[in-house]
Specification:
CATH class of the largest domain: Mainly Alpha
Organism: Gluconobacter frateurii NRIC 0228
Distance between the termini: 76 Å
Number of strands: 14
GO molecular function: ATP binding
Radius of gyration: 36 Å
Keywords: ATP-binding, Membrane, Nucleotide-binding, Transmembrane, Transmembrane helix, Transport
Membrane topology: Multi-pass membrane protein
Pfam family, one: ABC_membrane_2
Strand order of the largest sheet: 8-11-12-6-13-14
CATH superfamily of the largest domain: ABC transporter type 1, transmembrane domain
Bound molecules: adenosine-5'-triphosphate
Length: about 525
């Protein structure tokens, strides 16, 4: 409100400046030097007031835009990280490209630009209204005879100015309209290039082993090619829009001169009056041309808002599907009439009914692509396509995927994930590492590193087991969580797991038949259904 108040005051000072101009120049051209000098202190006060207000206004605008950016980003982050929205954005039916860019860049730009353009718009409207009154009043009435008609146009200067500028705005909309979608595509392609570069960085070792430089170069060049092609459209539309703006900026003075002709013919123009009309004309013009001058900025803002609203729609939309998940406080895992489908409706697997009592140890097997991981996704609430229901104690369950996530930071943070690093005592952390055959890392618990790159895939899988030993879940789902380990380490981890968590309900997806001895039942999954065998 303070900023808007300052805008109003600024416009009022500009009106005073106009009045002062008229008095000053009329006095000057009457050669009254002493009276002219007497007017200078008033000018200095008005100038000081205007300068002070502008500086304060800019400072307040910056503070407000940063606060607004932070608030917006917090809201978007909360939505992005709720209800697995970040997962569905990458894997679901409705995807939105480059969420990182939308949250980091688009929101920052949106916050700064909407505030700046919004406040400028308020100032433009206030200026327009204030100086429209001045222009109407001092511009006078135009009267002439045309084909025998006596025509009288009150406030003709105001109408002349407004109509000519609005006409130019229409021409501009025609010339620069496609700029919005071109800008939208440009942001999309820029983000794609960044994501592709990030891919190379993340997978540098794999690419180097494959000798994939050529393929990567081709992929990045494709991204660059899309940027270049679209950039040409952006340039063409910007060029068209800028041509209209430049022609307008130079040509608009002719409109003022044309509007002054009746006053010149009537000998009704003093230099003071000219100066005041000129100032009012310029202010009305500046406020109306605000739209013209900011056309390209408004076009970019429109495309940013378009991207953000698309992101918002995808983030808040729930993935459609028929699988119902019901959390219960404790007890067995109940699966009823479960079928797993793809988003296009084709069947992945028929699971049917399955009850897994507390403390049971079930191994899930089946051919590659049979739907084992999808079954775990359905249990974790990440897959809803299909039908049927699942219920179990979801609060006290832990899922270990094949590829573990090891965040960058201290090893203790990576070990405690998703809890914070102070959640577990140092002794417990050390014991968990020892139990997962990672004793050599005990001394590095406080070392900061990109552990996801430093640790081998097998070590990362052992670290995931160490997390289990710390978190001690009641139900544990393992999705090929030991696939990168040698048989000895795999057996060691299962043995330690059952020794340290004897009550745990264990559901493992695994290919190694050697793991059967750690389970009491085996479920074999296929499109036709699921068969259960008792393991001795
Ligand atoms: N996000 C997805 N969109 C479309 N289809 C998918 C998606 N995720 C998995 N599928 C399909 O579902 C089927 C089952 O995949 P799933 O990963 O569950 O198999 P799996 O039995 O775990 O295989 P593997 O033993 O090779 O890991 C596959 O045909 C796969 O292509």
């Amino acid at each position: 409100m303070g900023i808007i108040g300052l805008s109003f005051l600024d416009v009022q000072v500009a009106v005073w400046f106009g009045k002062w101009d008229q008095t000053f120049f009329d006095t000057m051209f009457a050669y009254k030097v002493a009276a002219c000098i007497a007017l200078i202190p008033i000018y200095v006060v008005m100038m000081g007031l205007s300068a002070g207000m502008r500086v304060i206004q800019q400072y307040m605008t910056q503070v407000l835009s940063m606060r607004w950016r932070l608030w917006n980003t917090r809201v978007y982050l909360r939505k992005y990280l709720s209800d697995n929205a970040y997962y569905h954005l990458e894997h679901g039916e409705n995807r939105a490209d480059n969420p990182d860019q939308r949250i980091a860049d688009d929101l920052a730009q949106m916050s700064v630009w909407t505030l700046r353009l919004g406040l400028d718009a308020i100032q433009a409207v206030t200026t327009f209204l204030s100086f429209a009154v001045v222009l109407w009043t001092i511009g006078g009435t135009l009267s002439f005879v045309w084909h025998g008609w006596h025509i009288v146009i009150p406030g003709y200067m105001f109408f002349g100015t407004t109509i000519s500028i609005l006409l130019i705005s229409l021409v501009l909309e025609k010339a620069g309209g496609p700029l919005v979608s071109a800008n939208y595509r440009q942001q999309h392609y820029d983000a794609d290039l960044r994501a592709a570069l990030l891919d190379v960085r993340r997978n540098s070792e794999q690419i180097a082993f494959y000798g994939g430089e050529g393929a990567e170069h081709f992929r990045l060049s494709e991204c660059l090619h899309r940027i270049a092609t679209n950039w040409r459209s952006v340039l063409a539309y910007t060029w068209r829009a800028n041509t209209v703006v430049e022609l307008y900026t130079g040509g608009i003075n002719i409109v003022l001169w044309a509007l002054l002709i009746p006053k010149l013919l009537a000998h009704a123009l003093t230099f003071g009056l000219y100066s005041r009309i000129n100032s009012a004309f310029m202010n009305v013009r500046r406020s109306l041309q605000w739209f013209i001058e900011n056309y390209t900025d408004l076009a970019t803002l429109r495309s940013i808002l378009q991207r953000l609203s698309e992101f918002e729609r995808v983030v808040t939309g729930r993935p459609e599907g028929g699988i119902v998940r019901t959390p219960v406080e404790q007890g067995q895992i109940e699966i009823r009439d479960l079928v797993l489908d793809r988003a296009d409706g084709s069947r992945i697997a028929t699971v049917g009914d399955l009850t897994i009592p507390s403390g049971a140890r079930l191994m899930i097997a089946g051919a590659s692509g049979a739907g084992k991981s999808t079954l775990l996704r359905a249990l974790a609430g990440l897959w809803a396509c299909g039908a049927g229901s699942v219920s179990f104690n979801m609060r006290d369950a832990m899922f270990l995927p094949q590829r573990s996530y090891v965040p960058t930071g201290t090893l203790r943070q990576a070990l405690s994930y998703p809890a914070t690093s102070d959640r577990y005592e140092l002794d417990a952390c050390e014991a968990a590492l020892e139990a997962s055959n990672l004793g050599a890392l005990v001394s590095k618990l406080d070392h900061d590193a990109a552990w996801g790159d430093v640790l081998s895939p097998g070590e990362q899988q052992r670290l995931a087991f160490a997390r289990v030993f710390l978190a001690r879940p009641a139900t544990l789902f393992l999705d090929e969580a030991t696939s990168a380990l040698d048989e000895e380490n795999e057996a060691l981890l299962y043995t330690r797991l059952l020794a340290l968590l004897p009550e745990v309900t264990l559901i493992s997806v695994a290919h190694h038949s050697g793991l059967k001895r750690f389970h009491d039942h085996e479920a074999i999954l296929s499109t036709q259904g699921m068969t259960i065998q008792v393991l001795s």
